């Protein structure tokens, strides 16, 4: 799924937007989502769905997988708010925490939709170029680059190990999962060391150049009007509630 994200970042209908426009809109909606109520957060999710699926042309199945993955991790973490365990082993549900947990879930999904909009519509090298123009420290940019590169190394290692395990008719017992995780840890460490040696051979991470090719096409007027209308509506709702 990571490679699908990266492919659509280069091949989507919002590719002609400048990265600064998308970053500004996503950050404004992210901040509004953090300070608003669940109604405004649902509106933000609807707006991001419109731009991701309707305007960028990202398949609904891919967007659904991303939201489902975020929901799984979010659901596991929210269980600690709702379920309590006491000794001797006894499970109890705190019904008073159901509403705060639901509100936190909506806020988190709204924030994730804003971040996913940035992830799926703009290639990573353009973000590195934007960070450089924002005068961020070089160490921060290089760290982001290394994390981005290591994600693909980790995914490739996991895919190769899983294919090798299935080729041996494995993968049906829980021990196979533990073995896969252990081998993945070792292989990821080896890949990271190989990347470090490659960087050292090239003179360090300072040798990398982040290219940003400016795009002449600006956002369509209908997109700008829709974004301004959504932000204005959210600001009005937040101001009306005090």
Automatic annotation (TrEMBL):
NAD in keyword set = no
The cellular location(s) given in this protein's UniProt record come to:
Membrane
Instruction: List the InterPro entries.
Output: ABC/ECF_trnsptr_transmembrane, Cobalt_transport_CbiQ
Membrane topology, as annotated: Multi-pass membrane protein
The record lists the organism as Geobacillus icigianus
User: What name does this protein carry?
Assistant: Cobalt ABC transporter permease
Q: Where, by residue number, does the polypeptide cross the bilayer?
A: 21-38, 44-63, 70-89, 109-131, 143-165, 222-240
Keywords, ordered alphabetically: Membrane, Transmembrane, Transmembrane helix
Which portions of this protein are annotated as coiled-coil regions? none
């Amino acid at each position: 799924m990571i490679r699908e994200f990266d492919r659509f970042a280069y091949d989507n209908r919002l590719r002609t937007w400048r990265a600064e426009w998308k970053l500004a809109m996503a950050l404004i909606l992210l901040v509004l989502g953090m300070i608003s109520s669940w109604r405004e957060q649902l509106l933000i999710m609807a707006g991001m769905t419109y731009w991701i699926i309707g305007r960028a042309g990202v398949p609904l199945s891919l967007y659904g997988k991303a939201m489902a993955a975020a929901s799984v991790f979010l659901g596991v973490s929210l269980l600690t708010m709702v379920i309590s365990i006491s000794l001797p082993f006894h499970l109890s549900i705190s019904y008073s925490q159901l509403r705060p947990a639901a509100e936190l879930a909506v806020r988190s999904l709204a924030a994730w939709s804003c971040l996913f909009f940035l992830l799926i519509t703009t290639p990573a090298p353009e973000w590195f170029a934007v960070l450089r123009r924002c005068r961020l420290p070089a160490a921060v940019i290089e760290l982001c680059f290394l994390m981005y590169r290591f994600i693909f190394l980790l995914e490739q290692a996991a895919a190769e190990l899983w294919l090798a395990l299935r080729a041996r008719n494995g993968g049906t017992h829980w021990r196979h999962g533990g073995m896969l995780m252990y081998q993945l840890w070792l292989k990821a460490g080896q890949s990271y060391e190989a990347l470090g040696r490659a960087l050292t051979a090239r003179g360090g991470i300072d040798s990398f150049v982040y290219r940003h090719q400016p795009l002449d096409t600006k956002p369509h007027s209908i997109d700008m009007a829709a974004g301004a209308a959504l932000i204005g509506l959210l600001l009005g709702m937040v101001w009306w509630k005090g």
